[in-house]
Fold this sequence. Notes:
Blueprint: H1 2-24, H2 32-54, H3 56-60, E1 65-69, E2 79-85, E3 92-93, E4 98-103, E5 108-112, E6 117-122, E7 129-131, E8 135-141, H4 145-151, H5 157-170, H6 178-186, H7 205-216, H8 268-280, E9 285-293, H9 295-310, H10 318-331, E10 337-339, E11 346-348, E12 354-360, E13 363-365, E14 368-369, H11 377-393, H12 398-401, E15 406-409, E16 429-433, E17 437-442, E18 448-461, H13 467-482, H14 487-490
Helix pairs in contact: 1-2, 10-11, 10-13
Amino acid sequence: MAAVTRGSFTVFRQLLTHHYRRRCFRPQSFRLNRTLQPLSSRYETDIKMLSSRTLHSSAVSRRPVVSFKLSDIGEGIMEVTVKEWYVKEGDKVSQFDSICEVQSDKASVTITSRYDGVIKKLYYEVDGTALVGKPLVDIETESSSEVIQEEDVVETPAMAREEHTHQEIKGLKTQATPAVRRLAIENNIKLSEVVGTGKDGRILKEDILNFLAKQTGAIIPQTLFQEIQPPAPPAATRPVSTPAAIKAQPITPRPVFTGKDVTEPLKGFHRAMVKTMTVALKIPHFGYCDELDLSRLVSLRAELRPVAEGRGVKLSYMPFFIKAASLGLLHFPILNSSLDEGCQNITYKASHNIGLAMDTVNGLLVPNVKNVQLLSVFDIARELNRLQTLGTAGQLGTNELSGGTFTLSNIGSIGGTYAKPVILPPEVAIGALGKVQVLPRFDASGQVVRAHIMNVSWSADHRIIDGATMCRFSNLWKEYLENPASMVLDLK
């Protein structure tokens, strides 16, 4: 403070001397009331400049605050709903820490931090609508301005060219934060060669380190492989473990009658359903129904179920239904195709990405099992277990929900026998499976026997699929399931 005062008087004395000399040598009269006013003004201006120079160091020492914007998560999504915040204002975060979970009209995505720092501001409340490209949170970073500017760069042209090749091969976008991309660039690693272990195949820092260790044979310290997890729930809300013998009964919420009409906007998956079904009902549907005797399949599953459980996989009937459908699609590839919007071209899909309509906490979702034509029944069962786990937790991502080519809806798991399924564009066929019932039927000798009967309802795009094609496919699919041993002949 003393330095500021001495500096202020020095400046004031210099101003008086300079002003006096200038006035003495100017050929005009000196007026006191006209010179004191600008003198005071210039004095205040110089004092402000001096103060700003003196306090400049304290302003520079402050940590920069960065507005962390919601990045484009693909699929043409422009807005999302904030479902849960994992942080609050004042919390300290590190790179890869989970910030929040957002839900689009196609998937739920966990947003992670790019920076190390402190959360200064949350821009949205829970259930608020966040826009892509707009600030999500403000973070007081621990980095310099150069680092911050570098963090904002999503990808370089070189990385874009490498990832474009990867997209053509896999059909998916390589997901990694800028920090991970920079680490890969510094070590001359192509992200297309690294297998991501994060959610939706996201490449994590530990994946780069593991890849580097395998390539160089170096020993990486274990402290570098700390995987960042979402914040654990409070201790009071954690479920208390119970013995395996005691099975918790599901709690059915009691309905609450308010007596008032409630209007709310369509969000997330409900909005997606409106869009999809509006387009789907423009397709002329052809329906076909039949019933199957699954008695032999029931016996086969009973034999294989303990074997699968010994490998840690729950074996249901769905893997058999899906594999039989894939075998049938090899004979009738038009059912695994798509029609362009102008109805001028048909694209026959090489991969059998068979979707399964699933009832989840977020509503009806249709994740799909990729490349069923290359999978065994056990592989399909394992993938279904993973999808069901993600669906129960509400964590199905874009990778699981996109790219389907054919769909089966297991409506019978809830109830019902027949249905009228609606095609999911751009697919051209879908099947609805009823519940398995034990009913009396006549065997080959005319005797009444117990039979495990299931009904199936097919819908096909009648613009390119005729009734005979749908019927023949259904008969072949039925043959595989009624005589599951025949599937062995065609398995690859």
